């Protein structure tokens, strides 16, 4: 027997082919299982991004809708602002036009009023001229003999009559102002009233009443200091004072003032004597 017969060999015993094949099969199965598991895990891991990708369109649509709504709101606000601006501009323009129309209307009204006043003054002047013409045609003209008789009476004016005549002659050239009684301006009845106040006689204020304040006298028998009137007795529209020599003094109108005129310039309707 060899001296090494009982010593084990340091080499491992060879495995049989069947065992090796079996183990290889087991190992392959395990690896296959691990591979499947890994694949499954990989598939699972790969599915997660897919899930996130599916959710992104939903989130993107919401954001797009919000953006669209915001843009629409902005456009609406801009449109409203523009509309308000247009309305404000239109209102301002309308106000300016209304103010212009009002100014034009006032101007036209003033012009119409002025024309109406001028027309009224023209008609009044025409009516007065017509009345004078009518009086002239209805009233006989003073004859030469009457004028002679009247002229001779002027030299006999004394006392109160002379004072009245002197006073009215002293006012010639002063202004005519409606309602005035002196000393710088008169109207027709104001002059007569003030003249007779100089001799202590208080006459009525207006021509209608002055035309009936004394005794009615004929125009052919006038004396200095007699009150002449135009129109009817009690409805006279003008008065003056006879000063002799066929002349009278009266406050005629705003354009003439206090003047001395011949009786033929504007023959009176009648006369009264208070002195």
Describe, in plain words, how this protein is organized in 3D.
With 275 residues, the protein is α+β, with helices and mostly antiparallel strands. The chain has a domain of 130 residues: endopeptidase domain like (from Nostoc punctiforme) (endopeptidase fold (from Nostoc punctiforme)). It is built from 5 helices and 8 strands. The strands form 2 sheets. The protein has a 6-stranded antiparallel beta sheet with strand order 3-8-4-5-6-7. Strands 1-2 form a two-stranded parallel ribbon. A hairpin with a 6-residue loop joins strand 6 and strand 7. Helix 3 packs across helix 4. The longest helix is centred in the first third of the chain and has 122 residues. The protein is rod-shaped, with a radius of gyration of 66 Å. About 10% of the residues have low confidence.
Structural class assignment: alpha+beta
The CATH topology of the domain at 144-273 turns out to be endopeptidase fold (from Nostoc punctiforme)
Low-confidence stretches: 39-47, 138-155
CATH architecture group name of the domain at 144-273: Alpha-Beta Complex
Rg over CA atoms, rounded to whole Å, is 66 Å
Number of helices, counting only DSSP H or I runs of 4 residues or more: 5
* CATH homologous superfamily designation of the domain at 144-273: endopeptidase domain like (from Nostoc punctiforme)
Number of strands: 8
What is the averaged pLDDT score? 78
- In the CATH scheme, the class of the domain at 144-273 would be Alpha Beta
Q: Cα distance, first to last residue?
A: 211 Å
The proportion of residues in beta strands is 5-15%
Give the biggest sheet: 6 strands, antiparallel
Shape: rod-shaped
Order of helices and strands: HHHEEHHEEEEEE
Trace the largest sheet across and list its strands.
3-8-4-5-6-7
Helix share, percent: 55-70%
